[in-house]
Amino acid sequence: MVKVPGQPSDYSEGMLKSLLTLADVMATGYHAARVANVQPGDTVVVMGDGAVGLSAIIAAKLRGASRIISTSRHEDRHQLAVEFGATDNVASRGDDAVKEIMDLTNGSGADAVLECVGTEQSTETAMKVARPGAAVGRVGLPHMPAMDMTQSFYNNTTIAGGPASVTTYDKQILLKAVLDGKINPGKVFTKTFTLDQINDAYQEMADRKVIKSYVKVSD
Predict the structure, then answer these.
(1) Interhelix angle for 25-35 vs 51-62, to 10°?
(2) Contact at 8 Å (CB) between 117 and 53?
(3) No. of H helices and E strands in the chain?
(4) What is the mean pLDDT of residues 191-218?
(5) Coil, helix or strand for 157?
């Protein structure tokens, strides 16, 4: 548990939404950026345009990345990615995505790749667009039982990730960043539901009508 100063009534609903992201998606996105060792001036690719992927864009920007390539196929998510710091977007998938990202980086690849999906295709793309010596931060729960590590071996790719150290990140970095208005991750909550609408809240996320559902129990 991380104590937030004051009372809920001290904060706007927008601020409360941002504070809520610190319990999960914002800390997870930050974990991807940290384990990928994103540094000031880096070129970063973020695989995934859900709440975690969008939070990873915030994290990459917070850590000083100068170029952030998002991978959204949905206009609302793309626009939010740009607001959070994305400088380019690649909507293609598979080999086409690899070619576009490599073209954007003049054939060099990215300094860091933040893998926030977990599918075989997303992971494979992340490996292919990482420059030699780069790091891939994985926070997408793996969907496949095994992966080919040959390419990453010869490219000296660092692969790290797993569950986020939520409390540590919140206490050291993220809570202050939210309270200071430096980041506003609560914007990933794009629709509000009541508790008796919980099925709709999940379905609209599954249908990509909502990025992240905000469930409000009462006023």
Answers:
(1) 50
(2) yes
(3) 10, 8
(4) 94
(5) coil
Cross-strand bridge partners of residue 137: 114, 160
Instruction: Say whether pLDDT at 131 is over 90.
Output: yes
- Judge residue 132's burial from the number of C-beta atoms within 10 Å of its C-beta, 0-12 exposed, 13-18 middle, 19 or more buried: exposed
The reported pLDDT for the residue numbered 145 is 80
Is 219's pLDDT higher than 80?
no
pLDDT for residue 47 is more than 80:
yes
- H or E, element range at 150: helix 150-154
Instruction: Say how far apart CA 143 and CA 207 lie, in whole Å.
Output: 20
What are the CA-CA distances from residue 118 to residues 17, 38, 68, 219 (Å)? 26, 20, 20, 37
Residue with tokens 């740009």: 82
> What is residue 67's DSSP assignment?
E
- Residue range 147-182, pLDDT digits in tens: 888 888 889 999 999 999 999 999 999 999 999 999
DSSP characters for 6-63?
S-GGGS-HHHHHHHHHTTTHHHHHHHHHHHTT--TT-EEEEE--SHHHHHHHHHHHHT
